[in-house]
Write a structure and sequence with these properties.
heterotrimer; A mainly alpha (99); B mainly alpha (332); C mainly alpha (102); B: 332 residues; 0% strand
């Protein structure tokens, strides 16, 4: 019982760390493509860790299934939306950042 | 004993989080209204809506949170963005950057400018202090309404108090609200000559996304409808998810088959309102009051009305996104 | 000081912010955004006041009213946006005429 709570805390903290990293990337990276990269990659992992942490506390398997479904939905939509935004930016003629 | 010592830390953390959330709301609201680029303003407004949904959860209002996330942030954002696309479709050369039009401060006379600005500030400050005073000196909450709801919850046919209030106790609110939704669509349809937005091919990714998401959205809408009787959810949440599926379909270029544009579409649009009104009227003939559902069949009646309402709300919201009336001719 | 009063005051702030922007901007789309933010402020006050009973279940009646309000707000917004598009096609721009104070 206590062990699962311990793992939940660890997983949630790890998830929060990835979200933080993604947000820092969003704020600090130079152009739209690198920002999208930081945001979607880091947030997908962060959300996955959080879902895993919460699934440990779930009361039933149905709840675990819903949590995982939420994660899959976010994976699907964030990957597609990142592609759409990047595509729109490329069509608009925004050049990728080069050192 | 342990609970006593850990309590202040918890409340402090919560207070910190709430304060942060409150300031973030105000800041996002301000940026959405003040940022010079309209596109940016709309995106900030969508973010504002999502933050609002978190606030609703903090305030123990999950039903409102669902409605806000789906309608307040999602559909309103989609409506704003498609309107912006239509407004900018005509003159692509002009940059999206809006010049700073400020009606109140349009004068060369600096003194007059400062004076009018100061006056506005004074009036707004008075308004804020009046409102804050009114809110802080409100008398303690009376429990009458709440007691009435919980006392009669059993006879309402559902166990989610918000659904009970929406569909049973204050059903006429919902009835009129659905009329407002329908009237808004009729109003939008009555304007002729709405320009088409700049349409581009959806591309494989959006196509694939819609193929995967739309069946899921329809299932989720049904789930919200079903679960609304005893958990957060209901006709409006389900309807707005259905509306989102419609918006996605419209985005990938799907249009209603010409055979269904006329009468069938109209029947679906008024279906929810029709079922609602006929249920209420039939009950009058059975010797009850207008909208007084007999407790034995209340649950089934509410589910029936909600099912019809979900369908109508979803289709109406999607039609609002299309803006112009679906056309009879010029169909691919 | 209760956190609920914090949200009530944020609601008052949002309402006033929206009112200010509604008065100051001449761009019609921006005015619609401002009205929506004013509405969010009102909803926030309502729901925060509904949760005043600490520990107990919040009052469901304001919650139902706010859900109704959100749907009415999106209907009004859709109608207003269609009007803006119509104004734009008729007049050529989507701003109020600029008037000077003199």
């Amino acid at each position: 019982m206590l062990l699962s709570e311990f793992f939940t805390v660890i997983l949630l903290l790890a998830g929060a760390f990835f979200f933080l990293a993604g947000t820092v990337g969003l704020l600090r990276f130079p152009d739209v493509y690198t920002r999208l990269h930081a945001l979607t990659k880091a947030d997908n992992v962060g959300l996955g860790l959080m879902v895993l942490g919460l699934a440990l506390q779930a009361e039933s398997w149905a709840m675990t299934g819903k949590l995982i479904l939420i994660w899959l939905c976010v994976l699907l939509s964030s990957a597609s939306v990142a592609h759409l935004i990047a595509n729109a930016a490329r069509k608009k003629g925004i050049e990728p950042w080069k050192q | 004993m342990e609970a006593m010592t850990s309590l202040p830390l918890m409340t402090l953390m919560q207070l910190l989080f709430d304060t942060l959330l409150g300031f973030a709301l105000l800041w996002l609201g301000w940026r959405a209204l003040a940022s010079p680029d309209l596109f940016q303003a709309i995106v900030l407004f969508i973010a504002f809506g999502l933050l609002m949904a978190i606030v609703w959860v903090r305030l123990d209002a999950p039903d409102v949170a669902l409605a806000e996330a789906a309608i307040g942030a999602g559909l309103t954002g989609a409506l704003l963005l498609t309107t912006l696309a239509r407004l900018e479709a005509k003159n692509r050369s002009k940059s999206a950057l809006e010049k700073k039009h400020k009606v109140w401060l349009m004068t060369e006379n600096v003194k007059l400018k400062t004076a009018s600005f100061l006056w506005l500030m004074v009036i707004l400050m008075l308004l804020v202090s009046g409102l804050v005073y009114a809110v802080l000196t409100l008398q303690e909450q009376t429990f009458e309404l709440q007691m009435l709801v919980s006392k009669n919850l059993e006879s309402s046919g559902v166990s989610n108090p918000v659904t009970a209030v929406l569909l049973n106790f204050r059903g006429y609110d919902t009835l009129l609200e659905m009329s407002v939704l329908l009237l808004a669509l009729l109003g939008v349809w009555s304007f002729g000559g709405i320009p088409k937005p700049h349409e581009s091919l959806p591309g494989p990714v959006l196509n694939m996304l819609s193929r995967l998401l739309i069946p899921l959205l329809i299932i989720v809408a049904g789930y919200f409808l079903w679960v609304g009787s005893d958990a957060p959810g209901g006709a409006f949440q389900g309807g707005s998810v259905l509306g989102a599926a419609g918006v996605l379909l419209l985005l990938v270029g799907w249009r209603l088959c010409i055979r269904f544009v006329g009468l069938p579409l109209r029947i679906i649009l008024v279906f929810g309102l029709g079922v609602f009104v006929s249920a209420a009227v039939v009950l009058i003939f059975l010797g009850r009051q207008f909208m007084e559902y007999p407790p034995s069949v209340a649950g089934a009646l509410i589910l029936l009305i909600e099912a019809a309402a979900t369908l109508s709300i979803g289709i109406t919201l999607a039609a609002l996104f299309l803006v112009g009336r679906p056309e009879f001719r010029r169909h691919k | 000081m209760n956190t609920l009063y914090l949200y009530t005051i944020v609601g008052v702030g949002l309402f006033t912010l929206g009112l200010y922007a509604l008065l100051i901007h001449s761009d019609l789309l921006r005015k619609i955004l401002a009205i929506n933010i004013m509405g969010s402020g009102v909803f926030l006050i309502l729901v925060a006041l509904a949760a005043r009973t600490q520990g107990a279940v919040p009052d469901p009646v304001p919650h139902a009213m706010v859900i109704t309000g959100i749907v009415v707000a999106v209907s009004a917004t859709a109608l207003a946006l269609a009007l803006v598009i119509r104004v734009r096609t008729k007049v050529g721009h989507a701003n109020l005429p600029e008037q000077s104070l003199e």
